[in-house]
Write a structure and sequence with these properties.
This protein is an alpha/beta fold. It has two domains: 211 residues, Glycogen Phosphorylase B (Rossmann fold), CATH 3.40.50.2000; 174 residues, Rossmann fold. 32% of the residues lie in helices and 20% in strands. The strands form three sheets. Strands 3, 4, 5, 6, 7, 8, 9, 10 and 11 form a nine-stranded mixed sheet that branches. The protein has a six-stranded parallel sheet with strand order 14-13-12-15-16-17, with helices on both faces. Strands 1-2 form a two-stranded antiparallel ribbon. Strand 6 and strand 7 form a beta hairpin. Helix 1 packs across helix 13 and helix 7 packs across helix 11. 38% of the residues are buried.
Length: 392
């Protein structure tokens, strides 16, 4: 097989030099995730809703503690994707939690009579209750450096080493993470954040403005995503104080940090979490979109999905120097990269008030750059890599 990279290195196309027999994939895919399906629509949801064309998927979430007798609940999200949640007893010891999840998994696999399946891991922690199985294939989609996140379990790094030994194939959520992991596995590939261009492209056309944003004055500078320890609270506060006539719109749930830490100013608007379907409506009403992350261990390897989504919506973007935003978006001149409030304000003023910016030309370059970038293409390439594993 001959692999051909496009000019950006982000869209991958494949041509087959000679016809190969069709590889038979396992019928079932069991995914173990640290993220809840209905929390924020992000990488796992984008990928797995498309993988449903190839597998019947069981998406196992982390447990909730709300019952006297352990059991599994199931919610059918699509004809080929079911979200499964372990319900456990409050106050269980760590060992009992692991044993209970292992017993529930055993019961589930026996009841469904699943023998033809692959395991897909987002969290190495799931090895603690699934290690006794030998699936047809083990896939590790390493979307983040979880060990660097706040409240990460102490045993996570040890379990990741074990998962890397077991995995047949490893994907990473960006190029920085790939560089950090590439020497730890023989079959590893970077798949940075992609986009659903049709969805976010709605923000370029006529769209009904959300009621909770419609009365917020312009200029509007917006962010959507999880507001957690990665979020640069100080930067947002400094900009808001220095430019009180600019309005900063913050969309997303607040997790792992005390909401009382967030700056409360008249020109900062916290609108809470929104559904994936609602995001283009908010984006359409922004003058600038933001990627305001701190530079710390938890952001060292991230590849923010929102970057190409903002651009796909046709919005100018200001970002702190996150490596996977700097390269390629900053280096291509598609995103403004700033390191402090002064640089942020200067970049925003250029976007808002400069008469020399050629937005039409910038938008053409954005669309050209993103032309081969899509979640569909990412999944097609992932499936090709998976089939190669079975064909060896």
């Amino acid at each position: 097989m001959m692999i051909q990279h496009d000019k950006t290195g982000y869209g991958i196309s494949e041509t087959v030099s000679k016809k190969k027999k069709e590889v038979q994939l396992p019928k079932n895919l069991i995914c173990f995730s640290h993220l809840r399906w209905d929390f924020v629509f992000q990488r796992p949801q984008h990928l797995l809703t498309r993988f449903c064309q190839h597998f019947t998927i069981q998406f196992f979430e982390e447990p909730v503690f709300d019952t006297e007798v352990p059991y599994l609940s199931h919610v059918q999200k699509t004809p080929n994707l079911t979200v499964t949640v372990p319900h456990l007893v409050p106050g269980m010891s760590e060992d009992d939690v692991i044993k209970a999840q292992a017993a529930l998994l055993d019961e589930f696999l026996a009841e469904k009579d699943l023998t033809d399946y692959a395991f897909w891991y987002y969290t190495p922690m799931a090895l603690m209750f699934s290690h006794h199985y030998v699936p047809s294939m083990t896939i590790y989609d390493c979307m983040d450096e979880l060990a660097a996140f706040k409240f990460a379990p102490t045993q996570l790094q040890i379990l990741e080493k074990e998962l890397l030994k077991r995995a047949d194939i490893v994907f990473t959520g960006g190029h920085s993470l790939y560089k950090a992991k590439k020497d730890k596995h023989h079959n590893i590939y970077p798949f940075p954040s992609s986009i659903d261009k049709a969805h976010f492209g709605k923000a370029r056309g006529e769209i009904t403005p959300p009621q909770d944003q419609v009365n917020i004055p312009h200029p509007r500078l917006g962010f959507y995503g999880v507001i957690d320890e990665r979020f640069d609270i100080d930067l947002i506060e400094q900009v808001a104080r220095q430019r009180p006539d600019w309005h900063l719109v913050m969309i997303g749930p607040v997790v792992k940090i005390d909401p009382a830490m967030l700056p409360r100013l008249d020109n900062i608007h916290y609108l809470g979490g929104k559904s994936y379907d609602e995001l283009p409506g908010y984006l359409a009403g922004w003058d600038i979109a933001l990627v305001p992350f701190q530079l710390n261990e938890s952001t060292r390897f991230i590849s923010p999905t929102k970057t190409p989504e903002y651009l796909s919506a046709g919005k100018p973007v200001i970002s702190t120097p996150i490596q996977d935003v700097v390269n390629p978006y900053g280096e291509e001149g598609l995103v403004h990269i700033v390191s402090n409030a002064e640089e942020f304000i200067a970049a925003a003023e250029e976007v808002l008030f400069s008469s020399t910016i050629d937005k039409e030309n910038w938008l053409k370059r954005v669309d050209c750059f993103l032309s081969e970038n899509s979640w569909d293409a990412t999944v097609d390439s992932m499936i090709s890599r998976i089939k190669d594993c079975f064909d060896k």
